[in-house]
């Protein structure tokens, strides 16, 4: 195979759709029930808290992506900001593992929806879907993101239908006045699950070497995708907890289909199909992201140089895509969704905290940048991530 570089083919619209798609596909169809089980009717508060935690870090990533538009963005930022090569490589591997785990959680959840209306063995469905997505990722980034954009439109339509059904259904007893007091330990635990559903804005930076005009495109895509996703999540979680009892949501593998059935009185099979599309989107996005991190790390470590090559025709990192796909398939067959989501969130909170510190270090040495945020933004992002991490440990202990 002739060595080649990645091709700049992606504009702001497709990149924003990529961000929305990976976030929407990262768990809202699967983890709404887990969040409701932990926090009850206060689950929407957990989704809002998760968004608040994400905003300053998203702004940090926006500035860093404009400063250093490279694949394996987190590692590049840490090496430039903290001047720690070993830490940069470690964070790259954490991101790869977290991406694998996140994709496995979404794939497992999506197949759970699939087998509810298609008679197919779970493990064969995981394997077949996983292999198909790897092939799409190899064909090309423009083709992958265009396919993901179509799935994103389908996902958003499905979520809008869920919102309508949730507010059309009769409210559950928890929604009667006076409202029960907040369960803060449960809210903290649900925030961990909810934060998992926002994972994706950070993935955008790893497409930097395939984006046109990355200094402008990346910050816009990061912020727009987070805003649009946050609005959807707040409304969906509110609709779900309003219409379905907490104990039912907590044990369901298809919580949003239950919301549709409660509000419309019709079968939720089609919504299960949309949830499968969401899972496909989320898994594809994570495979694309993790393979680009491997490509970027090849620039920083001679032992990983084998990953620093792209297919001469497709312009994609084939070896990284195959390895990531295999890891996702194996993980999805063996690990439960809630555990996957929790571990992924905790790992990424640590990474985000380090990235925020990196921007503080960069701003002290070089204030000039195409996209600038005040220095208190990464400081706030670091504090929010650290607080969320402590909250996740407290929730587990409780």
Descriptive report:
The protein is mainly α and about 400 residues long. The chain has a single domain, classed as Amino acid/polyamine transporter I, CATH 1.20.1740. The chain has 15 helices and no strands. The radius of gyration is 20 Å and the shape is globular.
- For the terminal residues, how far apart are their CA atoms? 54 Å
CATH architecture: Up-down Bundle
Summed up, the domain count is 1
Tell me, briefly, the overall form. Answer: globular
Name the CATH superfamily classification: Amino acid/polyamine transporter I
Based on CA atoms alone, the radius of gyration comes out at 20 Å
Helix content: over 70%
Sequence stretches where pLDDT stays below 50 over 5 or more residues: none
Largest sheet: none
Number of helices: 15
Task: Determine the mean pLDDT.
Answer: 82
CATH topology, which one? Amino acid/polyamine transporter I
* CATH class placement: Mainly Alpha
SSE order, one letter for each helix or strand: HHHHHHHHHHHHHHH
Derived from helix and strand composition plus strand pairing, the structural class reads mainly alpha
Strand-helix topology:
Blueprint: H1 12-24, H2 28-39, H3 43-67, H4 73-81, H5 85-114, H6 122-139, H7 141-168, H8 184-196, H9 214-243, H10 246-251, H11 255-264, H12 269-297, H13 318-334, H14 337-365, H15 376-397
Helix pairs in contact: 1-7, 1-9, 1-12, 2-8, 3-8, 3-9, 3-14, 3-15, 4-5, 4-14, 5-6, 5-12, 5-13, 5-14, 6-12, 6-13, 7-9, 7-11, 7-12, 8-14, 8-15, 12-13, 14-15
